[in-house]
Design a protein that fits this description.
about 250 residues; mainly alpha; three-stranded antiparallel β-sheet; 3 strands; about 55% helix; Trigger_fact/SurA_dom_sf; Peptidylprolyl isomerase; PrsA_foldase; signal
Length: about 250
């Protein structure tokens, strides 16, 4: 592998793998809540910024002899910038692009370290697994078919080989996390603790009432699994960074 692959979450928008999972207390929106006050709390928006990618080297980072190329970094950075722009406009604050570039580089390095570890453990992504993953993403997107989904992605600059490469990386990560126990079924106690945490976090919020536990069981299970995967990933990353040879050229 000569260059890093974009995160699978970025099939459409290069969202970095493991950039963070929302804390349980802040996950109310995932369960149907949100701010219904109708008040506009945004400050005056700053002048529009553009992502500054001038002067970047051809190789942004090297991780254990594998390179993160400029093009891969730019795709991830521009997506991160777009997401930050929404928050910056709401808060009336400019984006610290130097800090965001470092954050993006760290995310790509972490992603590559995990993929390298999956490969070191002998995991592989078969064509059949990639096909299944593609079908899942197509179904979730509402595209109707894998071919229609690929056409949509092509319009956004991702050709089929690139998409399948990203999907293969996610298959590797799924196997790595499963090997660490991420696919274990959440216990009843874990689900109840999360539900209570979210309920307490929303205590006193006007016009907001959490649905009953049984109605949210599936969503709670997904959240617990996401949190577990995030914790496993962060633990692995910390271990892998200790022994890795990492050079960032920003």
């Amino acid at each position: 592998m000569s260059t890093t692959k974009k995160s699978i979450a970025a099939l459409v928008a290069a969202v970095l793998v493991l950039s963070g999972i929302a804390a349980a207390s802040g996950a109310f929106g995932a369960f149907g809540g949100g701010d219904e006050s109708g008040q506009d709390t945004a400050q005056e928006a700053p002048d529009a910024q553009a992502p500054d990618v001038e002067g970047l080297p051809d190789v942004v980072a090297v991780v254990n002899d594998d390179e993160i190329a400029r093009d891969d970094f730019v795709l991830a950075y521009e997506n991160q910038f777009a997401q930050q722009s929404l928050q910056a406009q709401a808060e009336g604050q400019p984006i610290d692009q130097d800090a965001l570039k470092q954050q993006t580089a760290d995310g790509l390095v972490n992603n590559l370290l995990l993929i390298q570890e999956a490969q070191r453990r002998g995991f592989e992504a078969t064509d059949e697994q990639v096909d299944e993953s593609l079908e899942t993403f197509a179904e979730q997107s509402g595209a109707g078919s894998s071919d229609a989904y690929l056409e949509t992605l092509a319009e956004q600059g991702l050709d089929e080989d690139e998409v399948r490469s990203q999907l293969a990386d996610q298959v590797l990560l799924d196997q790595l996390f499963a090997d660490e126990g991420a696919d274990e079924e959440p216990s009843e106690e874990e689900l109840r603790e999360l539900y209570d945490s979210v309920t307490e976090g929303q205590a006193g919020a006007e016009g907001q009432e959490l649905p009953p536990f049984d109605e949210l069981r599936d969503q709670l299970a997904e959240q617990v699994s996401s949190q577990r995967e995030s914790e496993i990933a962060q633990s692995l990353i910390q271990q892998l960074r200790e022994d890795a040879q990492i050079q960032v050229n920003l």
